[in-house]
Amino acid sequence: MKKNAFAYILVITLLAFGCGQKTIIEEIQAPEKNEVTFFIDNNSDSPIRIRFYRSMSDSLEADYYTKEGKDTLTIPIYQPEVILISHKSIYSDTLYVTKGDSISIRLPKSGEAFQLIGGRKSISESGTSQAYLDSLYNLYISTNSEFKPLEIKADFERINLGLPMTLNKALLDTNPDSFNLLVEGLLNKLSEQRITQEGTSGSSDWNELKLDLEKRKAFYRLMSLLRWTKSQEIKDRAFASTMFTDESIINSRFGLGYFQNFIIQIVLEGKTDRSRSMEYINFKEAYDRLPNHIPEGELLKIARERSLYQMVEYKEPYGEISDYLNEYMMTYKDSTFLEEFTEQFLLGYEKQVNEKVGLNLLKEDGSVIRFQDILIKNKGKVIYVDYWASWCSPCIEAMPYAEKLREEYAGQNIIFVYLSSDNDQSDWKKAVERYDLSDLENNYLSLNHKNSDWVKNLKIQSIPRYLIFDTHGKLVEADAPGPKDPSIKTLLEKYIYAQD
């Protein structure tokens, strides 16, 4: 592995001095590549996700997914980064990488952990001051061994959070002075400034990352203390930093996380809704309140853009998002953002998205057709429909099997139709490219998946979902087996070779 990707060119110049020759070897250092390369050997039947922590202003994709088998990813990178490597059944690994790194990620079929080569597994912290803060924090935070370790399991990650932790209130009551020292130390770390040196790189980049990591640790420890103590003083002082009101947070490595907490604790005054399946944050209200906390300027503009993105993430009504987007445009008149946002989140297809009758489908070229048109065009053929999304782990797991199924029935009296329920058009297109669907004729994004009576009547409430239509265009299997299920071949052949 070439850890720093420095290339050296040997320039040999032959100079004649009288009867003899002298060889001069000049060493020239080539520019370093602004990228990191991942070589993946995934022997499981589920994808691996590589997640980068990005700033508020960073337009680079934050999450990358690799299918089973061998894969290579080359990702732009301009400074040392923190990445999280995750898989639905393997504990996540954190790795520190920088430009020019080559990282090998292997997941054996029966493995319980990733086998990693390259990058850095850890970064040393700042000596005695950090050790002192760690000891004070551990003094006041206790674990309850009566419970099992906490674990997160999601479509693309499994994280062991350890034992539940809580504040040692008895110690706080008897020894508040040391607790105050802990809070003061965390606040000091949060306000610590890096020493910048113009024109320097290399080790100084790693030092900047180290300080950023220590500040992030201090911030989230303060958030824990705030949650346990409900202390207004901790809240006020933690968010008193100018980081939250000037533009330095825009390019901070962990600025998105800081800003999310600022929205919850300051802009929304700690109000969130935990009654739903996921914690709900009202970014519509946040959008309205932001000017009360952030002065006019680039930070407020980007903060409102982040709020618009989060409205989509929390699946706010289409019309309400459009209203907020119109208000944004009246204020900032940013046609580039408008174009990107409307294309990404399908706001240019308002009529088709809101329509209840039938199913409207977007093609990669931007044209729209109806599902009924597919049935009419392909009358006489069996149609196997795969309802999926880029964020659906079981859907992605099935894609290699779907490809084998297509190959096995190529040229026969059957077509395969792929309907994505993604909200984000760019996520759909990236997944289509990665899972080899871009060359298929019948690959679509379902525009009115949420509003369609057709979807509601079929009770498509979860994905993946597979449907089979016979040669007359009649739905004969409303909940068919997926491509991983061996029984799917028998079922498909039943309809392919059916006698009229």
From TrEMBL:
Answer yes or no on keyword Disulfide bond. Answer: yes
Instruction: Show the GO cellular component annotation of the record.
Output: cell envelope
Instruction: Cite the Thioredoxin domain residue spans from the record.
Output: 332-500
- Protein name, per record: Thioredoxin domain-containing protein
* Species, as recorded: Roseivirga echinicomitans
Q: Which Pfam families match?
A: Redoxin
The UniProt record lists the keyword Cell cycle? no
Where in or outside the cell it occurs: the entry states:
Cell envelope
**UniProt entry keywords in alphabetical sequence:** Cytochrome c-type biogenesis, Disulfide bond, Redox-active center
- Predominant location category: other
